[in-house]
Amino acid sequence: MSIGQDIDEILSRSLKIKRRSILKACAAAAAAIGTGGLVRIKDAAAFAYRDYPTDDALETVVTSCAHNCGSRHVLVAHKKGNVIVRLSSDDGTHQRGGCYGKDTEEEPQLRACLRGRAYRERIYSAERLLYPMIRVGERGEGRFRRATWDEALELVSDKLIAIKEQYGHQAILDQSYAGASYGVLHKSDQIEGLQGRLLGMFACRTSSWSVPSYQGTTTSSRWTFGTIEDGSEDDTFAHSKLMILWGWNPAFTFHGGNTVYYMRLAKQRGCKFVCIDPQYTDTAAVFDAWWIPIRPGTDAAMMAGMAHFIFSRGLQDQPFIDKFVQGMDPRSMPDWAATSPNGRESFKEYILGTHDGRPKTPEWAAEICGVAAADIEKLAQLYATTKPAALKACWGPGRAAYGEQFNRMAAALQAMTGNIGVLGGCAEGVGKAWHAEGVAHPHDQYSNIWFASIKSDRWAYIVNNYPNVSREEAGLWPRDDERDGVVPNIRGIFWQGSDWLNQLTNINAEIEAIKKLDLVVCLDQTITPSGLYADVLLPICTHFERHDVALPWYKGHYYIHRPKVIEPLGESKTDFQVFTELAYRIGNKTGMGDRFGQVYNPRATRDYWNNPDPVDEAYLRAWWDDRVMARQHVEMPWNEFKRLGIYKFKLERPHVGFQDQIEQGIPFPTASGKIEILSSELARIDDWAKTQYGYPIPSIPKWIEPFESLNHHEKRKRHPYHMITPHPRNRTHSIFHNIANLQEACPHEMMINRVDAQRLGLRTGEVVEVFNDRGRILVPVYVSQRCMPGVVVCPEGTWIDLDDEGIDRGGNPNLLTADEPSPAGSFAYNTILVDIRKTVLEFRPGWDESSVSRTHVFGRDL
């Protein structure tokens, strides 16, 4: 059929549809007249045409995005009255000395990504939580009734007190995180957060110490460097001659304000790029990187093969090792290692197979990771001889069983090549760089009090198996009091700014556990899958509806003012208002009176509930004066910062992680004062059961086989595909899932290699059921050559939508993940074996496809 015939057919069918509608209307009118009825024709009631508001009719307010996509960038709200009409971003004018179009290497614009630019749809979304709600159905049914704030807070405070009296100080699990509330004042966070402060003061709090995104990296950096501030600012990448993107796709999740901008500068200056990843990412394509596909979970083995090549060819930076490194080789071993219970072997001895008789050669690594030995040797040669070189070991490969070994092995390669502390090199794991002054609310002896601290994804296991849970299984952090080793009897959960039911591992185990609890409270801005399982939903206003200051996220050196752009929608309140009012109610019910509320929020009275703005202003001004201006030598006064909206620091030199240690001889913040490839902490542990790890961890980086992988031939007989779950372009974890425009631009689908698709008889767009022993999900497939055979790529973060049989029609891979964290706390998000079959069951993406683009409607009709 020709194009012209196609168009004729479309028009013909469209006209037939319109003709049928007209005939039906005429028949109905004739019937009315024929029976004596009168058809009354009303006056037209259409709205008069109004011009779209132009910029000169709108008020412009500078603010920022608020979530953990890898940065927090400028949003400029254009509003009419109390309505945000549209959003734009940084154009160079909103800073001291700024002008339109200013965008320099020293002071680049902080332009928002597509997620931030779509934020208006989140503010006004159908899922927006506007009133307190109390559950009336079963947990998970999503049946609630509207309540007053007084009723909801009375219920919560009464239940809190009753649970503590009956079950003790560990009974409430604090699951606050930085999903929806993160600024210097309104902060949801395990360590510095407002919720933790309240529950800690109330003396009923179980915390969690393992961070889902990067715990393997965090523990690795602390063991190796003594700090998680191991990063360089992204402008240093512009000076690299070689960048190895190991599991890193900054086109989707950059770690810094202008990552791709500086990478582009490096490319223009001759930098070579290598991408090691099971999938060929957009970043690899844009930077024309050498793509090395690797079996998921085997990264540490490939790194060990590279280390063997470097040692065997004598390419290591021996002077650097001798001066700055502990445990790299026999000559850098400390004297005490000879008698330590877990630390007599140096890294070089392990790599060469001195003790176990297994040299970790490139050929040995190739059998494990599926990368040709020649490619391992070529990359090792390139990395060892190119200076400076940045091996960016990102968090994704560490989100796997024994993921901490990946980051430790990467640190060993970075150290043995002398690429730490030099401009254009890279030491990071975690990547936290320039230090921001991050807390404006009270942060004192009452903050971060806890009576048990567990591995985050063990909470459901603890609830489902209590009291038959060992301290090792719980991942209990040691204490120095009578509660050491006491596994908490968790009876309630507070979710603040976190959709953890949706985002932690093994969702089915979580659902089983959640039904056993006495209280589940969810504080959020939208009704999320986690909220559907709550007893009480408390509406929290967005950062557009309260006063705060935005921090950069791990990288970037700037502050962005966040004024109250609009008044809170519905009856929503700030987190600080809610917790302050709860503190007053708890105090008055437990005999402490108003004193409890006054200590919790010392700048406020109880009237903070009705008028928070002056108090918030006082906290923020004091933070700016006492911390930013005094400690960081900023000369801009608070009122000028408020007027401009942005303060960008001009650093005297590029911020390079550990530059002072290397150039000035300042000790690393480790026990030895050196880079510890042999961990002083791990080497001296003789009773693992009394540690938060629970199980043995080698004192030097080693390859450890994960509990599931493509190398497990027996397990592959039942579940032959390895699933990885990277971050998507259009969501920050589960945030923005309900934004229809973003869903349309980046539909949820599972990438599968063409060879595997042909074997299964699949075409792009067809729905499959993906399953293992832990769960079943439905998802459309996208057939591509951009992932390696045997691997499927299913982005994380979609909202679960369970049918009556427990099948997730929304395609969330966390129905398939195992809640078996590594000893050091790494989450096994990317350690999943699955099987796949075509299905006729309906995939439900969670948004109305017909509401955005007519192409969907026409596509179905045609």
Describe the structure.
The chain is of the alpha/beta class and 862 residues long. It has 3 domains: 282 residues, Rossmann fold; 206 residues, Dimethylsulfoxide Reductase, domain 2 (3-Layer(aba) Sandwich), CATH 3.40.228.10; 149 residues, Barwin-like endoglucanases, CATH 2.40.40. The chain is 31% helix and 14% strand. The protein contains 28 helices and 26 strands. The strands form 7 sheets. The protein has a 6-stranded mixed β-sheet, with helices on one face. Strands 21-25-22-24-23-26 form a 6-stranded mixed beta barrel. Strand 8, helix 7 and strand 9 form a beta-alpha-beta unit. Helix 12 packs across helix 13 and helix 15 crosses helix 18. It is globular, with a radius of gyration of 28 Å. The N terminus and C terminus are likely disordered.
End-to-end distance: 14 Å
Q: Count every helix, treating DSSP H or I runs of 4 or more residues as helices.
A: 28
CATH architecture of the largest domain: 3-Layer(aba) Sandwich
Q: How is the biggest beta sheet arranged? A: 6 strands, mixed
> What is the CA-based Rg, rounded?
28 Å
- Specify the overall morphology: globular
| The top level CATH class name of the largest domain | Alpha Beta
Tally of separate domains: 3
- Estimate percent helicity: 25-40%
Strand order of the largest sheet: 5-4-16-15-14-6
User: What is the CATH topology assignment of the largest domain?
Assistant: Rossmann fold
Unreliable parts = 1-39, 853-862
Beta-strand residue percentage? 5-15%
Mean pLDDT: 91
Number of beta-strand segments: 26
